[in-house]
Specification:
Shape of chain A: globular
Number of helices of chain A: 11
Radius of gyration of chain A: 22 Å
Oligomer: homodimer
CATH architecture of the largest domain in chain A: 4-Layer Sandwich
Structural class of chain A: alpha+beta
CATH superfamily of the largest domain in chain A: L-amino peptidase D-ALA esterase/amidase
Largest sheet of chain A: 9 strands, mixed
Strand content of chain A: 25-35%
Helix content of chain A: 25-40%
CATH topology of the largest domain in chain A: L-amino peptidase D-ALA esterase/amidase
Number of strands of chain A: 16
Distance between the termini of chain A: 44 Å
Order of helices and strands of chain A: EEEHEHEHHEEEHEEHEHHHEEEHEEH
CATH class of the largest domain in chain A: Alpha Beta
Amino acid sequence: MRGIPGGVTAALGFRASGISSGIKPSGEPDLALVATGAPAAAAGVFTENLVRAAPVLVSQSRLRKGSARAVLINSGCANCLTGAVGIRDARRLSRAVARELGIAEDEILVASTGIIGRRLPVPQVERALPRLVKQLSRAHHAAAAQAILTTDLRVKEAAVETAIQGRPCRIGGMAKGAGMIAPSMATMLCVITTDVAVAPGLLRRLLAQAVARTFNRISVDGDMSTNDTVFALASGRSRVSVREGSRGARAFGQALQAVAGRLATLLIKDGEGAGKIAKIRVAGGRTDREAQACARRVAESLLVKTMLAGGDPNVGRIAAAVGASGARFDPRRLDVLIGAERIISRGAARRLGTAAMRKLLAAPDVQIGIHLHAGRGEGRMMTCDLTEEYVRINARYST
Amino acid sequence: MRGIPGGVTAALGFRASGISSGIKPSGEPDLALVATGAPAAAAGVFTENLVRAAPVLVSQSRLRKGSARAVLINSGCANCLTGAVGIRDARRLSRAVARELGIAEDEILVASTGIIGRRLPVPQVERALPRLVKQLSRAHHAAAAQAILTTDLRVKEAAVETAIQGRPCRIGGMAKGAGMIAPSMATMLCVITTDVAVAPGLLRRLLAQAVARTFNRISVDGDMSTNDTVFALASGRSRVSVREGSRGARAFGQALQAVAGRLATLLIKDGEGAGKIAKIRVAGGRTDREAQACARRVAESLLVKTMLAGGDPNVGRIAAAVGASGARFDPRRLDVLIGAERIISRGAARRLGTAAMRKLLAAPDVQIGIHLHAGRGEGRMMTCDLTEEYVRINARYST
């Protein structure tokens, strides 16, 4: 498996485009389209929030048939808390884009991100659709990745080529998200495409597994969005076909997870105001579930996250978060490491001197290892620091 | 019931003192003592964190007998993650203060707050104890309240006088805490004293109830400390005596809750970097538990808290937190109010205009009302905004 350029159009059979339609008052790009020439197997994973945006409800319903031909995404407006009218708006836009593409309305998947509680400016977006469709090209993956951003600072793309059954195939994708990132699915939009041929049911299972191990293990701020969406589309245009339970399916699942993992890392690196990232590994939990809860609690502790920002390893904050996580363990056996250095040993803080302590957190990528000595359960999370910049961004992000 | 001055010595039978012993390098006051002339009924409520500081372990054990004569509290050092040596340090200090007071070692309760992972400078504190005991006076309640502070900006005292069985009696207290305030007990220390005569078992039950309804319903940052402690001491020096199940016990419980509630409000108002407070009330939950989980989720959402700081009512953030709380409800029936203004009605955001929206959050004390329309469950939380100042304070609070 090797990284390749091309993002969401790296796989054969996909074109993309991204333009400004005027949803964002700033005039920045805000409308993206990913399209296939023929129906593709399609799957999706969505937010677990009980309050779901209109495009989530529409796309969930359309995915039941397991195929799609295009994904229309807008930024600048979440089309959430918009009631029945929001559903009609999402349907009307997908009908218009389907007409431009000469396909059926229910072959369109939709996703939105931006301010909650506002209606989409539908006529304005409709007028931009012919231009959006005309721009479709394998070369325009970065324009599409740009058009789905909100507070993100950087475009997020990833793609790999791998060999399955001795033949080359590709998986690529794009994502957006910088805040409202957490519990059970980072608040984010993501489109993953592949030219592997795979049945919708298997695609859905492998996508759900990849999401659980990547996007569900990151947290910027612990907030869960109403619009989280990950789509996967498989064109089958390579000569690789994978079936349930085969070695090919395992290899495909690994490549899918590699792309999702790379995009998840890009999300955390671009976390609002983030200056550094931290990877938290918990070992020795009574169960995987308890170890994962422990990793999440540490990753979401404001005191741990401001400690990362300040760069001064206040080890008690890590221990306090571990102890509050609900994981059961004997505090007299707790070990905590930063990088290779043991900072808490058998429940007692080690004194390393201020200079040595500060050096531990100087890395842009901090590894926090926690051993509970209560069993074999493991958990992992990735998070970023909490800076004054995060507060500035979110105190001003505006109605 | 009426508010009176006097804090932790407002009730008859208590004296207090607070001095600088040199634990804090700044030279600020860091050692407090509250003492009774005779054994008092005593009860405590402690952090639910699995990682508990040495003074918590020592005090829990001593409270089994249900009485105490003094409380020794230091700030500047949490005496946590200090292993067996930390327990010895806490015992050695309480032995020394017991000697000064001419009472038994196990009549001393202890509490600590400050940096985790450091040992107490025991000889230095021991040298300060004669001065601390000599300063004991009914007039020195504010000096004691000052000496237990860490990042707090203000002293926190409250006291009430009420009539039970036609006779006057008093309850008063002091607290500290400004950060690491949350789940199941704000990270805080608190001493409540009363001159009512009450058996230790009843005192413990009424204290636990008051804590559940006050300190456990506030959150500054969602972090749970290793040192949380609330002590209650009853001298019996008024001529009021209350028994389990009596009207007097109910009146006493209400007065106890009034003092705890007042101190909890002071904690939130002094939340690190806080510019305003918000009171969240959830109605219509399937159960009280779900409604309370919903209130907590909203109170701890960073996006809601930065919205409070920025003053721009981004209503979707409230809805997203409600939907992510685990409370079950029909999102098409959700109503949300700020003050008296309905901002989400039957699951759809109302457009009120930017000026009207900003005005809603201009109050220093914001009321957020949430109706889930799923049952009769109710929940409440009090929180503060999240400001750049919070991050500044916590990125720098240092090892």
